[in-house]
């Protein structure tokens, strides 16, 4: 028998970046030396949201969840010694994607690279930022304009670059069902392609080149049969849309091209060693089926629910990919699922559901003048659906209908050697690195040609007020030494800023307050406590200080507190401690709940506490939720935080009950004990 020809493995990446550009460069070099075949750059939140590291909102966020890149000098340091013409680089960047691509191009030119040979991806999907990650800056209209300009520029100048990654990954993390994930991602793709076509920047005969460079970035959950069928449905739908809607005749240009990060939402803090098998199963969903196999894969580390993974943890995830690709026989065969009645039926079911939802969303766009998915963003339809789906999922976990091993079942455990010393089980960013970044930024501004930088910014604003492509003016800013915050604030002056709908008000009740149930008991406690305090309703402020835009947890707390009878004050993401305290005082709340997943809790929470005390607010308990290491949790409680909740605290109704307890304790009320049930 003739030997089977093996397929080429997918690109193997790890999502990485932290502290400083120099530190991240060292990490990238080590990862490439270990056999990683592509880079995936994690930028810190100030970079993602268009702030310089010394902005008030950047405090505590610099270098936490990624690398700070404030100007072309940082980009030089980030890729020092890494030949960009030979490197496939993915950049998870959205609102400031044009800026980071410009910095990348300038550094490549300085290396002597032919920019036409650059390969890689800028995520650049702003729609899902309004719905999930929260790193949006500008309103939808200008944001789509930035995306359109980038696509038109890259098709003409960097033809191998993927200028946008339609990103359903974060939709799933925000609660999307497989049908919603397919539908909303496809609506985004359609809206982007329509915008490029209608802009007149790309000739009709070159639209096939645009379609060929559209890529997707998806999430693979642990239900790997359903997830694999989702990917097959995605591929079939993309084939249909590109052929029928855009008339693309070349099958290669219609190919569904996607990368994947398997599901970080499903990783658990409890028994985190179980995350390894979850990651493997999730990887199989996007590699087993050849006809819907990912072109690039990055896996999270087993300890991401605990904190920042160490280089060794990232190596472990890379080795998982390498074992499958090089030791197994997976790549020697065609699609092993073709002809399966089960797979075909499930794929058809997902496809039908997605097409129905796409029609509904695009109909909203048509009624608003063919604006695609944008009206469904602006009117809150999409966000409310995601909040509702997420609430339903959480309710199934709390009830035990959805089983999570080590969390709501099989939770007895031996002591884990992996987490015996939690302080060393994760990587901790040195707080001193933030100050070094700030000092370097100050030095950069002092040493650059200030007049040239200001001229470039003035030209950028002038061009932004027209419909001329913004890429040339952005490149001029990069070369003139303009900073990330200066570029973004110049465009803020022209475009304005945008606060997306929270979706909390429109979310339906996810858990019924059945007599004798936990929610009914908590509702009784809320009502009784309000009566004892002589107020109509207990008021809970849910606040998101800093730049962390992952609002899923905050939204679920807000929805369940509302269902328990609280009046909830939730103003969305990206608030300063000063704004949160002002709202707490103005609304006369009974409790302040802070949600932070970026690691900035050690800076931001004490600031809120101090401001509350200075405002004379002594009897309002402050609770905190997020990815908070045990030692940090102890420090926060010592500083005055009433309670700390982490991902292991999965019972939301129980958390709401704890909040009532803390309110009673702060107001010197007796612990709540409901009246005994009357015998029937």
Structure description:
This protein has 680 residues and is α/β, with parallel strands linked by helices. It has a five-stranded parallel sheet with strand order 1-10-9-8-7. A five-stranded parallel sheet has the order 2-3-4-5-6, covered by helices on one side. Strands 12-11-13-14-15 form a five-stranded parallel sheet, sandwiched between helices. α10 packs across α13. It is globular and about 75 Å long. The C terminus is likely disordered.
- Could you name the ranges where pLDDT drops below 50 across 5 or more consecutive residues? 675-680
Mean pLDDT: 93
- Tally the beta strands: 15
Question: What general form does the structure show?
Answer: globular
* Largest sheet: spatial strand order: 1-10-9-8-7
What composes the largest sheet? Answer: 5 strands, parallel
The helical percent reads 40-55%
Q: Specify the structural class.
A: alpha/beta
Short structural summary:
With 680 residues, this protein is of the alpha/beta class.
What are the defining features of this structure?
alpha/beta; five-stranded parallel sheet; 25 helices; disordered C terminus
């Amino acid at each position: 028998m003739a030997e089977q020809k093996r397929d080429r493995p997918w690109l193997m990446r790890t999502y990485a970046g932290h502290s400083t550009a120099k530190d991240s460069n060292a990490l990238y070099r080590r990862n490439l030396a270990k056999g990683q075949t592509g880079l995936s750059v994690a930028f810190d939140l100030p970079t993602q949201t268009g702030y310089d590291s010394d902005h008030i909102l950047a405090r505590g966020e610099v270098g936490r969840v990624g690398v700070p890149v404030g100007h072309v000098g940082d980009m030089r340091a980030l890729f020092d010694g890494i030949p960009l013409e030979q490197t496939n680089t993915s950049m998870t960047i959205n609102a400031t994607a044009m800026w980071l691509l410009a910095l990348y191009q300038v550094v490549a030119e300085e290396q002597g690279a032919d920019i036409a040979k650059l390969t890689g991806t800028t995520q650049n999907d702003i729609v899902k930022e309004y719905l999930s990650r929260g790193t949006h800056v500008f309103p939808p209209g200008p944001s789509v304009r930035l995306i359109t300009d980038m696509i038109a520029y890259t098709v003409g100048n960097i033809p191998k670059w993927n200028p946008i990654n339609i990103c359903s990954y974060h939709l799933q993390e925000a609660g999307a069902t497989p049908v919603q994930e397919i539908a909303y991602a496809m609506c985004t793709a359609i809206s982007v392609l329509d915008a490029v076509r209608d802009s007149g920047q790309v000739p009709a005969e070159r639209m096939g080149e645009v379609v060929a460079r559209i890529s997707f970035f998806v999430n693979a959950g642990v239900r790997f049969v359903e997830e694999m069928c989702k990917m097959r449905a995605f591929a079939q739908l993309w084939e249909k849309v590109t052929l029928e809607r855009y008339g693309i005749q070349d099958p290669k240009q219609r190919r569904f091209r996607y990368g994947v990060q398997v599901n970080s939402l499903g990783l658990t803090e409890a028994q985190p060693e179980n995350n390894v098998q979850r990651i493997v199963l999730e990887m199989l969903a996007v590699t087993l089926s050849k006809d819907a196999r990912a072109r690039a894969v990055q896996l999270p580390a087993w300890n991401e629910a605990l904190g920042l993974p160490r280089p060794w943890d990232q190596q472990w995830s890379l080795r998982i990919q390498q074992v499958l690709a090089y030791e197994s026989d997976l790549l020697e065969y065609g699609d092993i699922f073709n002809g399966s009645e089960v797979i075909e039926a499930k794929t058809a079911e997902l496809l039908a559901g997605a097409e129905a939802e796409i029609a509904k969303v695009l109909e909203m766009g048509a009624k608003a003048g063919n604006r695609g998915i944008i009206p469904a963003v602006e009117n809150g339809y999409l966000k409310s659906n995601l909040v509702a789906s997420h609430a339903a999922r959480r309710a199934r976990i709390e009830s035990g209908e959805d089983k999570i091993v080590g969390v709501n079942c099989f939770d007895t455990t031996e002591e884990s050697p992996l987490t015996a010393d939690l302080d060393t089980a994760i990587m901790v960013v040195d707080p001193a690195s933030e100050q070094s970044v700030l000092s370097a930024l100050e030095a950069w501004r002092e040493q650059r040609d200030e007049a040239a930088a200001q001229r470039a910014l003035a030209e950028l604003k002038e061009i932004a007020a027209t419909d001329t492509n913004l890429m040339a003016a952005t490149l001029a800013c990069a070369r003139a030494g303009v900073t990330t915050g200066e570029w973004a604030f110049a465009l803020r002056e022209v475009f304005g800023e945008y606060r997306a709908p929270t979706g909390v008000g429109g979310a339906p009740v996810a858990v019924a307050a059945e007599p004798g149930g936990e929610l009914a008991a908590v509702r009784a406690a809320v009502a009784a406590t309000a009566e004892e305090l002589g107020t109509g309703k207990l008021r809970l402020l849910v606040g998101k200080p800093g730049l962390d835009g992952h609002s899923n947890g905050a939204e679920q707390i807000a929805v369940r507190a509302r269902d328990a009878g609280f009046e909830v004050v939730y103003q969305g993401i990206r608030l300063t401690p000063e704004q949160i305290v002002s709202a707490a005082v103005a609304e006369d709340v009974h409790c302040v709940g802070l949600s932070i997943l970026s690691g900035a809790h050690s800076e931001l929470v004490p600031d809120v506490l101090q401001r509350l005390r200075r405002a004379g607010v002594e009897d309002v308990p402050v609770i905190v939720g997020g990815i908070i290491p045990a030692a940090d949790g102890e420090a926060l409680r010592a500083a005055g935080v009433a309670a700390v909740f982490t991902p292991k605290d999965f019972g939301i109704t129980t958390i709401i009950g704890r909040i009532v307890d803390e309110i009673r304790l702060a107001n010197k009320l007796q612990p709540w004990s409901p009246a005994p049930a009357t015998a029937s």
